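Anyone up for a design puzzle?
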């Protein structure tokens, strides 16, 4: 029968209720605290430690027929065998967690890629805004259009625009402010 302590089900050393297995019982009694100390140093998560302990006991219980032969060695060899089991189980746990993280990240990336595809309504709205911007820009005076285009599309500074258009920096500022004001009122972005 399983014994419950702190949400951990410790395996009894019995193969069935009537047959007592002293080897498994001795291993649990003699090495459990050492296994827990070993795991505490390697796993921060209490639940992960409990899972590894349970896996060790499960593997030992599954080997009950050969358990006495395999672990009839001295205490140091038995402890080494148990710590090797624990180390291998920790590695397996880390591998599984790594795979889970990669799969989760890939799925999240795929979902985000799907979210990046605009809906037909968003495409239509964007096309309408672009048309309004083009109409607003074409409605501006030529110097205003040119100053705005040099600023926004060629990333020139106000000084560079002033030099290219042979006007003052103040005039460049006025042209760009007028263009932005016209865009705001027409497009309402």
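Challenge accepted. My sequence:
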């Amino acid at each position: 029968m399983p014994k419950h302590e702190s949400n951990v089900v410790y395996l009894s050393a019995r193969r069935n209720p009537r047959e007592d297995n002293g080897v498994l019982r001795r291993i649990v009694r003699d090495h459990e605290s050492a296994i827990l100390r070993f795991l505490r140093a390697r796993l921060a998560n209490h639940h992960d430690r409990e899972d590894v302990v349970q896996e060790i006991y499960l593997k030992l219980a599954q080997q009950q027929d050969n358990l006495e032969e395999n672990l009839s060695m001295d205490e140091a060899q038995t402890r080494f065998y148990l710590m090797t089991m624990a180390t291998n189980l920790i590695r397996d746990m880390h591998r599984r967690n790594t795979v889970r993280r990669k799969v989760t990240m890939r799925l999240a990336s795929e979902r985000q890629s799907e979210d990046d595809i605009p809906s037909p309504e968003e495409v239509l709205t964007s096309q309408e805004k672009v048309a309004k911007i083009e109409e607003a820009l074409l409605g501006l005076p030529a110097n205003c259009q040119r100053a705005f285009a040099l600023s926004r599309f060629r990333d020139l500074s106000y000084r560079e625009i002033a030099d290219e258009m042979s006007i003052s920096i103040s005039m460049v500022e006025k042209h760009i402010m007028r263009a932005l004001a016209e865009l705001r009122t027409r497009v309402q972005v």
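A detail worth pointing out: The chain has two domains: 3-115, 120-187.
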